[in-house]
Specification:
- Belongs to the Gfa family.
- The protein has one domain: Metal Binding Protein, Guanine Nucleotide Exchange Factor, Chain A, CATH 2.170.150.70.
- 5% of the residues lie in helices and 40% in strands.
- The protein has one helix at 30-36; strands spanning 3-7, 14-18, 24-27, 41-47, 51-55, 60-64, 69-74, 80-85, 90-94, 108-110, 126-127.
- The radius of gyration is 14 Å and the shape is globular.
- Bound molecules: zinc ion (2 copies).
Length: 132
């Protein structure tokens, strides 16, 4: 198994994640727009055992968004790190925190029905108005 390293903006939190995502996608839901402060969030899904916080664990704070999802971030710099899918036992890692380049590429857009009106989708990737 190959691993990728990642870190938050201030560098206090570092992670190691397997370079084998169950999928990588762009999420255009309104909550990801708020959470990321941007047009969409790019996330890769892994099993919980495939993500390890290698330093700064005590600085990781989580916002309990719903029964299904905790959104976790660095409490020092505020960088969005990953979400924890509480019922599935999986994590969605924000790809922007990676310091290495993953082997896979994003291959899907989800929740395009709520996409930011000021953002234009111009690629040929598969698109779903909500979930696949
Ligand atoms: Zn930080
Ligand atoms: Zn989303």
């Amino acid at each position: 198994m190959t691993y990728l390293t990642g870190s938050c903006l201030c560098g206090s939190v570092t992670i190691r994640v397997s370079d084998q995502f169950q999928f990588i996608g762009y999420c255009h839901c309104s909550e990801c727009q708020k959470w990321s402060g941007s047009a969409f969030a790019t996330g890769g899904l892994v099993n919980s055992e495939d993500l390890v916080i290698t330093s700064g664990k005590e600085l990781v704070s989580c916002y309990h968004k719903s029964e299904e999802t905790d959104l976790c971030f660095c409490s020092t710099c505020g960088a969005s790190l990953f979400s924890e899918k509480l019922r599935l036992g999986k994590y969605v890692v924000r790809l922007g925190i990676l310091d290495d380049t993953p082997t896979q590429r994003p291959d899907v857009h989800i929740f395009t029905a709520s996409k930011a009106p000021w953002f234009e989708l111009t690629d040929q990737l598969e698109k779903f108005e909500q979930l696949p």
